[in-house]
Amino acid sequence: xxxxxxxxxxxxxxxxxxxxxxxxxxxxxxxxxxxxxxxxxxxxxxxxxxxxxxxxxxxxxxxxxxxxxxxxxxxxxxxxxxxxxxxxxxxxxxxxxxxxxxxxxxxxxxxxxxxxxxxxxxxxxxxxxxxxxxxxxxxxxxxxxxxxxxxxxxxxxxxxxxxxxxxxxxxxxxxxxxxxxxxxxxxxxxxxxxxxxxxxxxxxxxxxxxxxxxxxxxxxxxxxxx
Length: 226
Prior knowledge:
Number of helices: 8
Radius of gyration: 17 Å
CATH architecture: 3-Layer(aba) Sandwich
Structural class: alpha/beta
Low-confidence stretches: none
Largest sheet: 7 strands, parallel
Shape: globular
Mean pLDDT: 89
CATH topology: Rossmann fold
């Protein structure tokens, strides 16, 4: 019997990361290792590891974990972070530094959870930073780089109050119907589907850079059970 594929997960305390930990329980071929800044609850029955380290020591942690693939679901908001500079420190600096450490550790596959509308030329600060970090990771030349650009994430967040997001989720059954053409990318999507897609993409063998919006994310999620 072959050893489980070692997959590092960053962002385990977030919505997608939490979903990934729960889903991974059913896939023993994936050896999930969460790298966190603080200890977070591990789902009951989960066969996984967790390493807690300050971000300044993440490069050492990545080298010690020696994963074959990385899922990066790191992310915050300007309001939670405390301003644009603090937001950028997480969504750009920390993500880029993790990717650099992964590349130095010879990680072949990197899966980034980004956002619909990410663009280096976007007027919105949030989307511009997302686009900039995507571009930075593209320069690192991973054997395989998957960028997930989900729309509005549906799911229950723990200890993270986002009242405007909650209102948007409540309105999504109607608002999704109003988003057509290029704007379909902003339709809501279940965070569990994003997590399932991220797990599946760590197992894909084709090399290259792949960008996945909602429809592609859902297709990848379905392949996890295939």
